[in-house]
Structure formats: structure tokens, C-alpha cells
Amino acid sequence: MPIPATQGDREAGRAYDRLIIAIDGPVGAGKSTAARLLAKRLGYRYIDSGAMYRALAWKALEAGLDLDDEGRARRLADAISIAFVPSGDRELVLVDGQDVSRQIRKPEVEQATSKLSAFASVRRVMVARQREMAAQGGIVMDGRDIGTVVFPDADVKFYLEARLEVRATRRYLEAQAAGTPRGLEELAEEIRARDARDMGRSASPLRKADDAMTIDTTDVNAVQVVEAMEEEIRRRLIASRRCT
Ligand code: DC
Q1: Which of 28, 40, 189, 218 could form a disulfide with 162 if both were Cys (CB 3.0 to 4.6 A apart)?
Q2: What is the third-level CATH fold of 16-229?
């Protein structure tokens, strides 16, 4: 497998290989910022798997679905179309053609997402879709179970974490920037509760894959995180070439 290019390699026109890169970790650990930037630097697609669960939850609320009804939730997951469309530095999330990028970030959708993402049959549908999206490789996907369940054979896996206060502060600043300010304490409490749910559920709980590299993002910025990731990608590929 060719070793991926450095910035210098890229400037010289040498292409990256089409790897699958998995990034997991709890809320506020900086996954999406790092994943998006890494994908950009590699020329890969970024897939936010959390947005897929959020998209389903948004649709379920729209349809007035009983959120305790796993069978109906699974059928809805099967029926809807979820698409990511690049837009500037970000990507729009379309459900059945409708742009729901903003709606899926609302607190009520977040609550519903937490419930629906705990259903094993819903997860099976989402995992199948995530694997389809990565069929051509060249993908960075972030979530909770990407390195453990979706792509246990991912080329490189990362597990991001950070101190709770830092994670809450990131959410606090995001909420302010979005014009929907929230209290810091309230956010910290919410994150604690989401950690407990994400790590404690029986279907695909959040955990670090044994072969994932842990990056603590408490005291580093996104560029530093991505540089550490690129270095690890190169190191892994050099090691895998030596073994073959
Ligand atoms: O990453 P996020 O906060 O957008 O995720 C939204 C919810 O979806 C959160 O409750 C965890 C859940 N999720 C999941 O169960 N599995 C994933 N691969 C991604 C997210």
C-alpha cells in the first residue's frame, strides 16, 4: 500500500491512497472539526455518522413516530434517504432531499437521537449505509462505533478525548456563535449524561478500539490534532508495508 503524501508530496502532485480512517470519541472531544480538516488535507470525503442518526431522529419527530417503537424506527431508517452535500467548508445534510442541517442540531432532536441510536436494529441499518458510503475508500468517518463496529478493519483508527470542562466550554462557545446561548453548567451536566448513555447502552457502546490511537485534545488545537493524525497514518502505513 503506498504511503500517504505529506504536504510536500501533495504540492508535488503525488496522490494519497484511498484509506478508511475511523475517528471515535465522546461528545465535544473535537472529532468533527479534526475529521473534517483531516479529510480536506487528504482529499477524502468526510462522513459525520452522528448526523445520520440525527437525521433519522428529525424525520421521526416530523412523522410523529412513537420513539419507543423500535420496529417503526427501523422501518423509517430503511425508508429515508440521507445525503451529504458539500457546501463551502461544511456539508449540508439532506433528508429525502430537504436540507435539515440546522434542524438536526436542536436539543429536541438530540434527545430523540439518543433514544433511536440505542436500538440495535436501527444501528444495523445505519451501519450498512455507512459501509456502502465507504465502498470506494478515501473516507474519514467519525462517530461512536466506527472503529469497533462499522469498520473494525479500518486502515487507521483514532480515539479522541478531552477533559469534561473543556468539552463543555466548546459546546458553550458553539451555542453562543449559533445565537442560542446555553449555560456552561447545564451543558457540562448534559455531556455527563450523554457520556453515560453512549458508553452504557447495550448496542455498540462507545469504547476505544484496541488498535486505535488515543489523542487527548484538551490542550491542543485542531491543526495539531490533525498533524498528529497524519503522522500516525504515515507510521502505520510504513509499518504495514514492512510486514507485507
Ligand atoms: O456525534 P453526535 O453528537 O452528532 O451524535 C449524535 C447522537 O448519535 C449521539 O447521541 C450519539 C449517537 N451516535 C451513535 O450512537 N453512533 C454513532 N456512530 C454516531 C452517533
Answers
A1: 218
A2: Rossmann fold (3.40.50)
